[in-house]
Amino acid sequence: MKKFGSRNDDVCLVSLSKGNLVGAAWIRKIRSYGYVDADTPELSIALKAEFRGQGYGTNLLNSLIDLLKGKKYKKISLSVDNRNIPAYKLYLKNNFKTVRKCDHTEIMVVNL
């Protein structure tokens, strides 16, 4: 993402295993696929394929949500392809609710 960290509302967490980068979760106020309104930052998560399904994504997501609770945000949003069953289930399990759907893409939000 261009100049990530240059805005006051940029937040990113990374996950490491034995000192190696496993993945990252970040938020930014941006008008992109998961946009719901100007006050809600969008969430993105990326994990290396060999670390998926081992709890790293859950830990990143929960850590980021915990970090953001009590901050200036009331909710965060994301866009997910509901055919990506592991990701879709992760978000449902963590109280994300669908606010808009188009074909296989769902825009989801979670209240903080």
Automatic annotation (TrEMBL):
InterPro entries per the UniProt record, alphabetical: Acyl_CoA_acyltransferase (IPR016181), GNAT_dom (IPR000182), YpeA/RimI_acetyltransf (IPR050680)
CDD domains in UniProt: NAT_SF
Domain N-acetyltransferase, residue spans: 1-112
Top-rank taxon, per record: Bacteria
Name assigned to this protein: GNAT family N-acetyltransferase
Coiled-coil features, chain-numbered ranges: none
PROSITE patterns on file: GNAT
Assigned keywords, A-Z: Acyltransferase, Transferase
